[in-house]
Amino acid sequence: MVPQQAPVMERTSTRIIVDLLRKLGTDIDDSEARSSHQSLLDELQKVTILDLGRRRIGDRGIAALGRALQDCPVPRLERLSLDSNDVADDGMTAIAEAIGVGNLTALRTLHLSWNNIGEQGCRALAHGFQGIRSTPTVSQAMAKSFSFEFWNKKKNRSKNLGEGMERSNSRKGFKCVPHLSTIWLTGNNIGDEGAKVLSSAFESGDVPSLKVLRLFNNNIGPKGMEALGKALASGYMATLEALNLGQNPLTERGVASLVRAFESKRVMGVRELGLSAVGLTDEGSKTLASSLQAGYFSALESLYLHRNEVGKEGGVAMAQALRSGRVKNLRVLDLEGNLIQEEGAKELAKVIELGQIPKLEILDLVDNGAGGEGGKILCEALVAGNCNSLKWLALDGNSIGDDSCMALGRALEEGHLVGLERLYLARNEIGYQGVAVIVKALEAGRLPNLKYLSLDDNKLEHRSTIALAAALKANVVPNLQYLSLKKSWGGDQEKGASALVAAYTKNRDLKTQVHYDWPNNSYAAKAKILQARNSGTTEDVDLPMPYKGCFCTSFNFRVLSRRSSSKRIQRAASAGELSFSTASFKENLKRQLSRKPSIRDVTPLDHNFTFST
Asked: Could you tell me which InterPro entries the record lists for this protein (predicted)?
Protein backbone atom coordinates (compact mmCIF):
# COMPACT_ATOMS: atom_id res chain seq x y z
CA MET A 1 0.00 0.00 0.00
CA VAL A 2 2.87 2.41 0.66
CA PRO A 3 4.07 2.65 -2.98
CA GLN A 4 0.51 3.53 -4.02
CA GLN A 5 0.10 6.16 -1.31
CA ALA A 6 3.43 7.91 -1.92
CA PRO A 7 2.45 9.57 -5.26
CA VAL A 8 -0.82 10.80 -3.73
CA MET A 9 1.08 12.30 -0.81
CA GLU A 10 3.48 14.03 -3.21
CA ARG A 11 0.62 15.48 -5.24
CA THR A 12 -0.94 16.77 -2.04
CA SER A 13 2.36 18.36 -1.01
CA THR A 14 2.69 19.93 -4.46
CA ARG A 15 -0.74 21.55 -4.16
CA ILE A 16 0.15 22.89 -0.73
CA ILE A 17 3.48 24.21 -2.05
CA VAL A 18 1.73 25.99 -4.93
CA ASP A 19 -0.67 27.72 -2.53
CA LEU A 20 2.18 28.75 -0.24
CA LEU A 21 4.25 30.15 -3.11
CA ARG A 22 1.33 32.16 -4.43
CA LYS A 23 0.83 33.59 -0.97
CA LEU A 24 4.54 34.38 -0.55
CA GLY A 25 4.50 36.02 -3.96
CA THR A 26 2.07 38.68 -2.67
CA ASP A 27 2.39 41.43 -0.08
CA ILE A 28 1.78 39.80 3.31
CA ASP A 29 2.96 40.78 6.79
CA ASP A 30 6.22 39.44 8.24
CA SER A 31 4.68 37.00 10.72
CA GLU A 32 2.52 35.38 8.04
CA ALA A 33 5.51 35.25 5.71
CA ARG A 34 7.64 33.50 8.33
CA SER A 35 4.88 31.01 9.05
CA SER A 36 4.35 30.27 5.35
CA HIS A 37 8.11 29.98 4.83
CA GLN A 38 8.40 27.40 7.63
CA SER A 39 5.46 25.44 6.23
CA LEU A 40 7.11 25.50 2.84
CA LEU A 41 10.32 24.07 4.30
CA ASP A 42 8.37 21.21 5.85
CA GLU A 43 6.55 20.34 2.62
CA LEU A 44 9.74 20.43 0.52
CA GLN A 45 11.15 17.60 2.64
CA LYS A 46 8.34 15.31 1.48
CA VAL A 47 8.73 15.47 -2.30
CA THR A 48 11.04 13.78 -4.78
CA ILE A 49 9.30 15.36 -7.80
CA LEU A 50 8.19 18.99 -7.68
CA ASP A 51 6.25 19.83 -10.83
CA LEU A 52 5.22 23.49 -10.75
CA GLY A 53 5.02 23.91 -14.52
CA ARG A 54 2.31 26.20 -15.93
CA ARG A 55 1.04 27.15 -12.46
CA ARG A 56 1.36 30.94 -12.99
CA ILE A 57 3.30 31.34 -9.79
CA GLY A 58 5.27 34.32 -11.03
CA ASP A 59 8.81 35.52 -10.40
CA ARG A 60 8.21 36.55 -6.76
CA GLY A 61 6.74 33.17 -5.89
CA ILE A 62 9.63 31.32 -7.53
CA ALA A 63 12.07 33.59 -5.67
CA ALA A 64 10.35 32.53 -2.43
CA LEU A 65 10.85 28.90 -3.46
CA GLY A 66 14.53 29.61 -4.11
CA ARG A 67 14.96 31.18 -0.66
CA ALA A 68 13.31 28.15 0.96
CA LEU A 69 15.58 25.79 -0.94
CA GLN A 70 18.57 27.84 0.24
CA ASP A 71 17.51 27.56 3.86
CA CYS A 72 17.70 23.78 4.12
CA PRO A 73 19.09 20.80 2.23
CA VAL A 74 16.52 18.88 0.17
CA PRO A 75 18.19 15.49 -0.19
CA ARG A 76 15.17 13.78 -1.82
CA LEU A 77 14.31 16.24 -4.59
CA GLU A 78 15.17 14.71 -7.98
CA ARG A 79 13.02 16.67 -10.43
CA LEU A 80 12.23 20.39 -10.38
CA SER A 81 9.93 21.73 -13.10
CA LEU A 82 9.34 25.48 -13.26
CA ASP A 83 8.37 25.89 -16.91
CA SER A 84 5.97 28.65 -18.00
CA ASN A 85 5.95 30.57 -14.70
CA ASP A 86 7.35 33.95 -15.82
CA VAL A 87 10.61 33.29 -13.98
CA ALA A 88 12.95 36.29 -14.36
CA ASP A 89 16.16 37.54 -12.72
CA ASP A 90 15.07 37.39 -9.06
CA GLY A 91 13.52 33.96 -9.26
CA MET A 92 16.39 32.50 -11.27
CA THR A 93 19.01 34.00 -8.95
CA ALA A 94 17.29 32.50 -5.89
CA ILE A 95 17.06 29.04 -7.50
CA ALA A 96 20.67 29.27 -8.66
CA GLU A 97 21.81 30.17 -5.13
CA ALA A 98 20.05 27.10 -3.79
CA ILE A 99 21.97 25.03 -6.31
CA GLY A 100 25.21 26.86 -5.52
CA VAL A 101 25.12 26.20 -1.77
CA GLY A 102 24.81 22.49 -2.44
CA ASN A 103 21.23 21.96 -1.28
CA LEU A 104 20.05 20.14 -4.41
CA THR A 105 22.66 17.44 -4.81
CA ALA A 106 20.04 14.79 -5.66
CA LEU A 107 18.62 16.84 -8.56
CA ARG A 108 18.41 14.96 -11.86
CA THR A 109 16.03 17.06 -13.97
CA LEU A 110 15.77 20.87 -14.12
CA HIS A 111 12.96 22.16 -16.34
CA LEU A 112 13.03 25.94 -16.91
CA SER A 113 11.49 26.26 -20.38
CA TRP A 114 9.33 29.17 -21.54
CA ASN A 115 10.30 31.72 -18.91
CA ASN A 116 12.11 35.09 -19.01
CA ILE A 117 15.49 33.95 -17.79
CA GLY A 118 17.56 35.78 -20.40
CA GLU A 119 21.30 36.30 -20.30
CA GLN A 120 21.47 37.42 -16.64
CA GLY A 121 19.46 34.48 -15.36
CA CYS A 122 21.56 32.09 -17.40
CA ARG A 123 24.69 33.67 -15.93
CA ALA A 124 23.31 33.13 -12.42
CA LEU A 125 22.50 29.50 -13.23
CA ALA A 126 26.03 28.89 -14.54
CA HIS A 127 27.55 30.34 -11.36
CA GLY A 128 25.17 28.20 -9.32
CA PHE A 129 26.52 25.11 -11.07
CA GLN A 130 30.05 26.26 -10.21
CA GLY A 131 29.23 26.70 -6.51
CA ILE A 132 29.23 29.54 -3.97
CA ARG A 133 32.25 30.28 -1.78
CA SER A 134 32.26 30.06 2.06
CA THR A 135 28.94 28.23 2.41
CA PRO A 136 28.41 25.04 4.48
CA THR A 137 28.03 21.93 2.37
CA VAL A 138 25.04 19.63 2.58
CA SER A 139 27.16 16.85 4.08
CA GLN A 140 28.33 19.20 6.86
CA ALA A 141 24.79 20.30 7.62
CA MET A 142 23.35 16.81 7.74
CA ALA A 143 26.28 15.37 9.74
CA LYS A 144 25.66 17.89 12.52
CA SER A 145 21.86 17.75 12.22
CA PHE A 146 21.57 21.51 11.77
CA SER A 147 18.12 22.90 12.45
CA PHE A 148 16.56 25.23 9.92
CA GLU A 149 17.19 28.18 12.25
CA PHE A 150 20.89 27.34 12.67
CA TRP A 151 21.22 26.84 8.94
CA ASN A 152 19.72 30.28 8.33
CA LYS A 153 22.25 31.89 10.71
CA LYS A 154 25.22 29.93 9.39
CA LYS A 155 24.63 30.42 5.70
CA ASN A 156 26.46 33.29 4.00
CA ARG A 157 24.13 34.40 1.26
CA SER A 158 25.32 36.22 -1.87
CA LYS A 159 23.52 39.43 -2.80
CA ASN A 160 24.06 39.10 -6.53
CA LEU A 161 24.94 35.69 -7.83
CA GLY A 162 25.45 37.02 -11.34
CA GLU A 163 28.46 39.17 -10.49
CA GLY A 164 31.80 38.57 -8.85
CA MET A 165 31.15 35.07 -7.56
CA GLU A 166 34.05 32.76 -6.83
CA ARG A 167 34.05 29.00 -6.77
CA SER A 168 34.45 27.31 -3.41
CA ASN A 169 38.10 26.49 -2.68
CA SER A 170 37.19 24.37 0.35
CA ARG A 171 35.15 21.80 -1.54
CA LYS A 172 37.76 20.78 -4.09
CA GLY A 173 36.08 17.80 -5.78
CA PHE A 174 32.57 18.64 -4.56
CA LYS A 175 29.92 19.12 -7.29
CA CYS A 176 26.72 21.03 -6.62
CA VAL A 177 24.66 18.94 -9.06
CA PRO A 178 26.59 15.68 -9.48
CA HIS A 179 23.55 13.76 -10.78
CA LEU A 180 21.90 16.43 -12.95
CA SER A 181 21.24 14.76 -16.30
CA THR A 182 18.48 16.83 -17.94
CA ILE A 183 18.34 20.60 -18.47
CA TRP A 184 15.46 22.27 -20.33
CA LEU A 185 15.97 25.94 -21.20
CA THR A 186 13.68 26.21 -24.22
CA GLY A 187 12.30 29.66 -25.08
CA ASN A 188 14.28 31.82 -22.65
CA ASN A 189 16.12 34.17 -25.01
CA ILE A 190 19.50 33.55 -23.39
CA GLY A 191 21.32 34.71 -26.54
CA ASP A 192 25.00 34.26 -27.34
CA GLU A 193 26.21 35.58 -23.97
CA GLY A 194 23.96 33.25 -22.02
CA ALA A 195 25.15 30.32 -24.14
CA LYS A 196 28.76 31.31 -23.46
CA VAL A 197 28.48 31.41 -19.65
CA LEU A 198 26.50 28.19 -19.63
CA SER A 199 29.12 26.56 -21.85
CA SER A 200 31.86 27.67 -19.47
CA ALA A 201 30.19 25.69 -16.66
CA PHE A 202 29.95 22.65 -18.93
CA GLU A 203 33.54 23.05 -20.07
CA SER A 204 34.71 23.13 -16.43
CA GLY A 205 33.00 19.84 -15.69
CA ASP A 206 30.50 21.31 -13.24
CA VAL A 207 27.62 19.22 -14.65
CA PRO A 208 29.38 15.86 -14.99
CA SER A 209 26.30 13.69 -15.62
CA LEU A 210 24.57 15.80 -18.31
CA LYS A 211 22.65 13.70 -20.84
CA VAL A 212 19.90 15.96 -22.20
CA LEU A 213 20.35 19.63 -23.11
CA ARG A 214 17.47 21.50 -24.74
CA LEU A 215 18.22 25.05 -25.88
CA PHE A 216 15.40 25.32 -28.43
CA ASN A 217 14.35 28.87 -29.46
CA ASN A 218 16.92 30.93 -27.53
CA ASN A 219 18.31 33.33 -30.13
CA ILE A 220 21.71 31.64 -30.05
CA GLY A 221 23.90 32.62 -32.98
CA PRO A 222 27.26 31.44 -34.36
CA LYS A 223 29.27 32.90 -31.44
CA GLY A 224 27.20 31.11 -28.82
CA MET A 225 27.42 27.91 -30.84
CA GLU A 226 31.18 28.26 -31.05
CA ALA A 227 31.40 28.42 -27.23
CA LEU A 228 29.14 25.40 -26.89
CA GLY A 229 31.26 23.60 -29.47
CA LYS A 230 34.36 24.14 -27.32
CA ALA A 231 32.53 22.69 -24.32
CA LEU A 232 31.55 19.66 -26.38
CA ALA A 233 35.12 19.18 -27.54
CA SER A 234 36.50 19.54 -24.00
CA GLY A 235 35.55 16.00 -23.04
CA TYR A 236 33.47 17.07 -20.02
CA MET A 237 30.23 16.50 -21.93
CA ALA A 238 31.01 12.94 -22.96
CA THR A 239 27.79 11.66 -21.37
CA LEU A 240 25.56 13.83 -23.62
CA GLU A 241 22.82 11.87 -25.40
CA ALA A 242 20.35 14.52 -26.61
CA LEU A 243 21.03 18.03 -27.93
CA ASN A 244 18.27 20.27 -29.25
CA LEU A 245 19.30 23.61 -30.79
CA GLY A 246 16.25 24.15 -33.01
CA GLN A 247 14.93 27.61 -33.94
CA ASN A 248 18.23 29.36 -33.23
CA PRO A 249 19.95 31.46 -35.94
CA LEU A 250 23.04 29.26 -36.03
CA THR A 251 23.58 29.69 -39.79
CA GLU A 252 26.25 27.77 -41.68
CA ARG A 253 29.00 29.00 -39.37
CA GLY A 254 27.29 27.71 -36.25
CA VAL A 255 26.52 24.33 -37.80
CA ALA A 256 30.17 24.06 -38.87
CA SER A 257 31.26 24.70 -35.26
CA LEU A 258 28.92 21.95 -34.07
CA VAL A 259 30.24 19.49 -36.64
CA ARG A 260 33.85 20.25 -35.69
CA ALA A 261 33.01 19.58 -32.04
CA PHE A 262 31.69 16.13 -32.89
CA GLU A 263 34.65 15.42 -35.12
CA SER A 264 36.83 15.74 -32.00
CA LYS A 265 35.38 12.34 -30.98
CA ARG A 266 34.83 13.57 -27.40
CA VAL A 267 31.05 13.14 -27.68
CA MET A 268 30.15 9.88 -29.37
CA GLY A 269 26.93 8.85 -27.63
CA VAL A 270 24.48 11.46 -28.98
CA ARG A 271 21.20 9.74 -29.82
CA GLU A 272 19.02 12.79 -30.57
CA LEU A 273 20.06 15.88 -32.55
CA GLY A 274 17.63 18.76 -33.13
CA LEU A 275 18.59 21.35 -35.76
CA SER A 276 15.18 22.50 -36.96
CA ALA A 277 14.92 25.99 -38.48
CA VAL A 278 18.55 26.95 -37.84
CA GLY A 279 19.26 28.31 -41.32
CA LEU A 280 20.78 25.09 -42.62
CA THR A 281 21.36 25.32 -46.39
CA ASP A 282 22.63 22.80 -48.91
CA GLU A 283 26.28 23.52 -48.04
CA GLY A 284 25.69 23.08 -44.33
CA SER A 285 23.73 19.90 -45.07
CA LYS A 286 26.71 18.53 -47.00
CA THR A 287 28.99 19.31 -44.04
CA LEU A 288 26.63 17.53 -41.67
CA ALA A 289 26.24 14.65 -44.11
CA SER A 290 30.00 14.14 -44.33
CA SER A 291 30.14 13.94 -40.55
CA LEU A 292 27.36 11.33 -40.55
CA GLN A 293 29.13 9.36 -43.22
CA ALA A 294 32.40 9.45 -41.27
CA GLY A 295 30.69 7.77 -38.32
CA TYR A 296 30.81 10.60 -35.79
CA PHE A 297 27.08 10.08 -35.09
CA SER A 298 27.04 6.29 -34.98
CA ALA A 299 24.66 6.23 -32.00
CA LEU A 300 22.17 8.67 -33.57
CA GLU A 301 18.51 7.64 -33.29
CA SER A 302 16.58 10.89 -33.92
CA LEU A 303 17.49 13.60 -36.44
CA TYR A 304 15.25 16.70 -36.64
CA LEU A 305 16.00 19.01 -39.59
CA HIS A 306 12.54 20.39 -40.39
CA ARG A 307 12.02 23.87 -41.87
CA ASN A 308 15.53 24.41 -43.17
CA GLU A 309 16.77 24.93 -46.74
CA VAL A 310 18.44 21.61 -47.36
CA GLY A 311 17.41 21.55 -51.03
CA LYS A 312 17.86 18.75 -53.51
CA GLU A 313 21.69 18.73 -53.37
CA GLY A 314 21.69 18.66 -49.57
CA GLY A 315 18.96 16.03 -49.62
CA VAL A 316 21.00 13.82 -51.94
CA ALA A 317 24.07 14.25 -49.69
CA MET A 318 22.07 13.36 -46.57
CA ALA A 319 20.58 10.29 -48.25
CA GLN A 320 24.00 9.12 -49.40
CA ALA A 321 25.32 9.51 -45.86
CA LEU A 322 22.49 7.31 -44.59
CA ARG A 323 23.19 4.87 -47.38
CA SER A 324 26.72 4.39 -46.02
CA GLY A 325 25.28 2.34 -43.17
CA ARG A 326 26.95 4.41 -40.44
CA VAL A 327 23.62 5.47 -38.90
CA LYS A 328 21.86 2.13 -38.65
CA ASN A 329 20.14 2.98 -35.35
CA LEU A 330 18.12 5.87 -36.82
CA ARG A 331 14.49 5.81 -35.71
CA VAL A 332 13.32 9.36 -36.48
CA LEU A 333 14.11 11.22 -39.71
CA ASP A 334 12.39 14.59 -39.93
CA LEU A 335 13.01 16.51 -43.17
CA GLU A 336 9.75 18.46 -43.30
CA GLY A 337 9.74 21.56 -45.49
CA ASN A 338 13.22 21.19 -47.00
CA LEU A 339 12.37 20.83 -50.72
CA ILE A 340 14.64 17.88 -51.38
CA GLN A 341 12.52 17.41 -54.53
CA GLU A 342 12.46 14.37 -56.79
CA GLU A 343 16.23 13.78 -56.72
CA GLY A 344 16.41 13.72 -52.93
CA ALA A 345 13.34 11.47 -52.68
CA LYS A 346 14.85 8.97 -55.11
CA GLU A 347 18.13 8.80 -53.16
CA LEU A 348 16.22 8.31 -49.95
CA ALA A 349 14.25 5.53 -51.62
CA LYS A 350 17.53 3.69 -52.29
CA VAL A 351 18.42 3.89 -48.59
CA ILE A 352 15.05 2.38 -47.63
CA GLU A 353 15.21 -0.28 -50.33
CA LEU A 354 18.67 -1.42 -49.21
CA GLY A 355 17.52 -1.61 -45.60
CA GLN A 356 20.21 0.76 -44.30
CA ILE A 357 17.88 2.28 -41.70
CA PRO A 358 15.96 -0.84 -40.57
CA LYS A 359 14.84 0.64 -37.22
CA LEU A 360 13.12 3.69 -38.75
CA GLU A 361 9.85 4.48 -36.96
CA ILE A 362 9.10 8.08 -38.04
CA LEU A 363 9.62 9.40 -41.58
CA ASP A 364 8.44 12.98 -42.10
CA LEU A 365 8.81 14.30 -45.66
CA VAL A 366 6.03 16.90 -45.61
CA ASP A 367 6.33 19.72 -48.19
CA ASN A 368 9.38 18.44 -50.02
CA GLY A 369 8.17 18.56 -53.64
CA ALA A 370 8.86 14.89 -54.35
CA GLY A 371 6.36 14.87 -57.22
CA GLY A 372 4.73 11.90 -58.89
CA GLU A 373 7.92 10.13 -59.95
CA GLY A 374 9.82 10.68 -56.71
CA GLY A 375 6.80 9.70 -54.64
CA LYS A 376 6.21 6.53 -56.66
CA ILE A 377 9.82 5.33 -56.33
CA LEU A 378 9.76 6.12 -52.61
CA CYS A 379 6.53 4.16 -52.05
CA GLU A 380 7.81 1.24 -54.12
CA ALA A 381 10.91 1.16 -51.92
CA LEU A 382 8.64 0.49 -48.95
CA VAL A 383 7.77 -2.84 -50.57
CA ALA A 384 11.38 -3.91 -51.06
CA GLY A 385 12.70 -2.51 -47.78
CA ASN A 386 12.06 -4.00 -44.38
CA CYS A 387 9.79 -1.31 -42.90
CA ASN A 388 7.79 -3.26 -40.36
CA SER A 389 9.02 -0.92 -37.63
CA LEU A 390 7.65 2.20 -39.38
CA LYS A 391 4.93 3.82 -37.26
CA TRP A 392 4.67 7.31 -38.76
CA LEU A 393 4.69 8.17 -42.47
CA ALA A 394 4.01 11.81 -43.40
CA LEU A 395 3.98 12.70 -47.11
CA ASP A 396 1.70 15.76 -47.06
CA GLY A 397 2.21 18.39 -49.75
CA ASN A 398 4.30 16.37 -52.21
CA SER A 399 1.81 16.05 -55.10
CA ILE A 400 2.54 12.34 -55.39
CA GLY A 401 -0.76 11.55 -57.18
CA ASP A 402 -2.69 8.33 -57.66
CA ASP A 403 0.17 6.22 -59.03
CA SER A 404 2.31 6.77 -55.93
CA CYS A 405 -0.68 6.18 -53.68
CA MET A 406 -1.41 2.91 -55.47
CA ALA A 407 2.22 1.83 -54.90
CA LEU A 408 1.81 2.72 -51.24
CA GLY A 409 -1.44 0.75 -51.16
CA ARG A 410 0.34 -2.33 -52.49
CA ALA A 411 2.96 -2.01 -49.73
CA LEU A 412 0.13 -1.80 -47.21
CA GLU A 413 -1.83 -4.68 -48.70
CA GLU A 414 1.20 -6.97 -48.74
CA GLY A 415 1.78 -6.32 -45.05
CA HIS A 416 5.05 -4.37 -45.32
CA LEU A 417 3.76 -1.58 -43.06
CA VAL A 418 1.79 -3.57 -40.54
CA GLY A 419 3.05 -1.45 -37.63
CA LEU A 420 1.89 1.88 -39.11
CA GLU A 421 0.00 4.12 -36.67
CA ARG A 422 -0.09 7.47 -38.48
CA LEU A 423 -0.44 8.08 -42.20
CA TYR A 424 -0.60 11.63 -43.58
CA LEU A 425 -1.33 12.09 -47.29
CA ALA A 426 -2.90 15.58 -47.47
CA ARG A 427 -2.40 17.86 -50.49
CA ASN A 428 -1.21 15.13 -52.84
CA GLU A 429 -3.74 15.23 -55.74
CA ILE A 430 -5.00 11.78 -54.80
CA GLY A 431 -8.25 10.60 -56.39
CA TYR A 432 -10.57 7.63 -56.09
CA GLN A 433 -8.09 5.08 -57.49
CA GLY A 434 -5.43 5.87 -54.89
CA VAL A 435 -7.90 5.79 -52.02
CA ALA A 436 -9.46 2.55 -53.24
CA VAL A 437 -6.16 0.70 -52.83
CA ILE A 438 -5.75 2.05 -49.29
CA VAL A 439 -9.31 1.01 -48.43
CA LYS A 440 -8.59 -2.45 -49.79
CA ALA A 441 -5.64 -2.73 -47.41
CA LEU A 442 -7.85 -1.56 -44.54
CA GLU A 443 -10.51 -4.16 -45.36
CA ALA A 444 -7.86 -6.86 -45.47
CA GLY A 445 -6.88 -5.96 -41.90
CA ARG A 446 -3.34 -4.93 -42.89
CA LEU A 447 -3.36 -1.81 -40.68
CA PRO A 448 -4.56 -3.05 -37.29
CA ASN A 449 -2.67 -0.36 -35.37
CA LEU A 450 -3.65 2.66 -37.50
CA LYS A 451 -4.76 5.62 -35.35
CA TYR A 452 -4.52 8.67 -37.63
CA LEU A 453 -5.32 8.93 -41.33
CA SER A 454 -5.31 12.29 -43.11
CA LEU A 455 -6.45 12.73 -46.72
CA ASP A 456 -7.22 16.45 -46.62
CA ASP A 457 -7.30 18.61 -49.72
CA ASN A 458 -7.30 15.82 -52.32
CA LYS A 459 -9.62 14.83 -55.19
CA LEU A 460 -11.52 12.16 -53.32
CA GLU A 461 -15.11 12.63 -54.56
CA HIS A 462 -18.01 10.96 -52.77
CA ARG A 463 -17.01 7.47 -53.92
CA SER A 464 -13.85 7.62 -51.80
CA THR A 465 -15.81 8.86 -48.80
CA ILE A 466 -18.36 6.06 -49.19
CA ALA A 467 -15.58 3.46 -49.37
CA LEU A 468 -13.91 4.81 -46.22
CA ALA A 469 -17.28 4.96 -44.46
CA ALA A 470 -17.86 1.30 -45.30
CA ALA A 471 -14.53 0.45 -43.66
CA LEU A 472 -15.60 2.37 -40.54
CA LYS A 473 -18.96 0.64 -40.46
CA ALA A 474 -17.31 -2.78 -40.77
CA ASN A 475 -14.92 -1.83 -37.94
CA VAL A 476 -11.88 -3.13 -39.84
CA VAL A 477 -9.72 -0.38 -38.28
CA PRO A 478 -10.67 -0.72 -34.61
CA ASN A 479 -7.94 1.58 -33.29
CA LEU A 480 -8.63 4.48 -35.65
CA GLN A 481 -9.09 7.71 -33.69
CA TYR A 482 -8.82 10.42 -36.36
CA LEU A 483 -9.93 10.50 -40.00
CA SER A 484 -9.65 13.81 -41.82
CA LEU A 485 -11.24 14.37 -45.24
CA LYS A 486 -11.39 18.16 -45.27
CA LYS A 487 -11.41 20.22 -48.46
CA SER A 488 -11.91 17.12 -50.57
CA TRP A 489 -14.24 18.77 -53.05
CA GLY A 490 -15.93 16.98 -55.91
CA GLY A 491 -18.72 14.50 -56.36
CA ASP A 492 -21.88 14.43 -54.28
CA GLN A 493 -21.08 15.66 -50.78
CA GLU A 494 -24.56 14.67 -49.60
CA LYS A 495 -23.95 11.02 -50.42
CA GLY A 496 -20.60 11.08 -48.66
CA ALA A 497 -22.16 12.64 -45.55
CA SER A 498 -24.97 10.08 -45.57
CA ALA A 499 -22.46 7.22 -45.77
CA LEU A 500 -20.51 8.57 -42.79
CA VAL A 501 -23.70 9.02 -40.79
CA ALA A 502 -24.67 5.45 -41.61
CA ALA A 503 -21.28 4.26 -40.35
CA TYR A 504 -21.97 5.89 -37.00
CA THR A 505 -25.49 4.57 -36.69
CA LYS A 506 -24.56 1.00 -37.69
CA ASN A 507 -21.34 0.72 -35.69
CA ARG A 508 -22.06 1.54 -32.06
CA ASP A 509 -18.41 0.98 -31.09
CA LEU A 510 -17.11 3.63 -33.49
CA LYS A 511 -15.07 6.28 -31.67
CA THR A 512 -13.30 7.83 -34.65
CA GLN A 513 -13.34 11.60 -35.00
CA VAL A 514 -14.30 12.22 -38.64
CA HIS A 515 -13.44 15.61 -40.09
CA TYR A 516 -15.49 16.33 -43.18
CA ASP A 517 -17.00 19.29 -45.00
CA TRP A 518 -20.50 18.55 -43.81
CA PRO A 519 -23.36 19.90 -45.98
CA ASN A 520 -25.68 22.29 -44.15
CA ASN A 521 -28.73 20.09 -44.56
CA SER A 522 -27.21 17.13 -42.67
CA TYR A 523 -28.75 18.38 -39.42
CA ALA A 524 -31.57 15.86 -39.74
CA ALA A 525 -29.03 13.07 -40.07
CA LYS A 526 -27.31 14.32 -36.91
CA ALA A 527 -30.62 14.18 -35.08
CA LYS A 528 -30.95 10.52 -36.10
CA ILE A 529 -27.53 9.79 -34.67
CA LEU A 530 -28.47 11.50 -31.42
CA GLN A 531 -31.69 9.53 -31.23
CA ALA A 532 -29.86 6.26 -31.83
CA ARG A 533 -27.00 6.95 -29.45
CA ASN A 534 -28.21 9.19 -26.63
CA SER A 535 -31.75 8.17 -25.85
CA GLY A 536 -31.70 8.42 -22.09
CA THR A 537 -28.06 7.30 -21.83
CA THR A 538 -24.88 9.02 -20.67
CA GLU A 539 -22.58 7.40 -23.20
CA ASP A 540 -19.72 9.57 -24.50
CA VAL A 541 -19.71 9.57 -28.29
CA ASP A 542 -17.43 11.50 -30.66
CA LEU A 543 -19.47 12.48 -33.70
CA PRO A 544 -19.08 14.85 -36.64
CA MET A 545 -20.76 18.21 -36.06
CA PRO A 546 -22.00 20.36 -38.95
CA TYR A 547 -20.98 23.96 -38.69
CA LYS A 548 -21.94 27.04 -40.68
CA GLY A 549 -19.77 27.73 -43.68
CA CYS A 550 -18.98 23.99 -43.97
CA PHE A 551 -16.27 24.37 -41.35
CA CYS A 552 -15.24 20.87 -40.35
CA THR A 553 -14.74 19.76 -36.80
CA SER A 554 -15.89 17.19 -34.26
CA PHE A 555 -17.75 17.49 -30.98
CA ASN A 556 -18.05 15.31 -27.93
CA PHE A 557 -21.66 14.86 -26.96
CA ARG A 558 -21.14 14.44 -23.24
CA VAL A 559 -22.92 17.77 -22.68
CA LEU A 560 -25.85 16.54 -24.80
CA SER A 561 -26.12 13.06 -23.33
CA ARG A 562 -29.10 13.82 -21.07
CA ARG A 563 -32.51 13.03 -22.51
CA SER A 564 -33.77 16.62 -22.33
CA SER A 565 -30.76 18.02 -24.19
CA SER A 566 -30.98 15.30 -26.81
CA LYS A 567 -34.67 15.98 -27.48
CA ARG A 568 -34.08 19.71 -27.65
CA ILE A 569 -31.40 19.25 -30.29
CA GLN A 570 -33.62 16.87 -32.24
CA ARG A 571 -36.48 19.38 -32.35
CA ALA A 572 -34.14 22.18 -33.39
CA ALA A 573 -32.58 20.03 -36.09
CA SER A 574 -35.96 18.99 -37.50
CA ALA A 575 -37.06 22.62 -37.67
CA GLY A 576 -33.78 23.71 -39.26
CA GLU A 577 -33.14 26.08 -36.36
CA LEU A 578 -29.99 24.58 -34.82
CA SER A 579 -28.32 27.51 -33.09
CA PHE A 580 -24.69 28.13 -32.18
CA SER A 581 -25.39 31.29 -30.19
CA THR A 582 -24.99 30.13 -26.61
CA ALA A 583 -21.63 30.85 -24.98
CA SER A 584 -21.33 27.40 -23.37
CA PHE A 585 -21.94 25.66 -26.70
CA LYS A 586 -19.29 27.79 -28.42
CA GLU A 587 -16.80 27.18 -25.64
CA ASN A 588 -17.30 23.42 -25.77
CA LEU A 589 -17.01 23.49 -29.54
CA LYS A 590 -13.70 25.37 -29.36
CA ARG A 591 -12.28 22.86 -26.90
CA GLN A 592 -13.08 20.02 -29.27
CA LEU A 593 -11.42 21.55 -32.31
CA SER A 594 -8.73 19.17 -33.43
CA ARG A 595 -5.93 19.38 -35.95
CA LYS A 596 -3.34 17.12 -37.48
CA PRO A 597 -0.80 16.33 -34.78
CA SER A 598 2.73 17.45 -35.52
CA ILE A 599 5.85 15.41 -35.00
CA ARG A 600 6.76 17.97 -32.34
CA ASP A 601 3.62 18.04 -30.25
CA VAL A 602 2.46 14.45 -29.92
CA THR A 603 3.46 11.91 -27.32
CA PRO A 604 6.68 10.30 -28.53
CA LEU A 605 6.41 6.77 -29.81
CA ASP A 606 9.27 5.47 -27.71
CA HIS A 607 10.45 7.13 -24.51
CA ASN A 608 13.77 5.33 -24.87
CA PHE A 609 14.95 7.70 -27.55
CA THR A 610 13.10 10.95 -26.89
CA PHE A 611 14.72 11.77 -23.56
CA SER A 612 11.67 13.54 -22.20
CA THR A 613 12.56 12.96 -18.56
From this structure: Leu-rich_rpt (IPR001611), Leu-rich_rpt_typical-subtyp (IPR003591), LRR_dom_sf (IPR032675), RanGap (IPR027038)
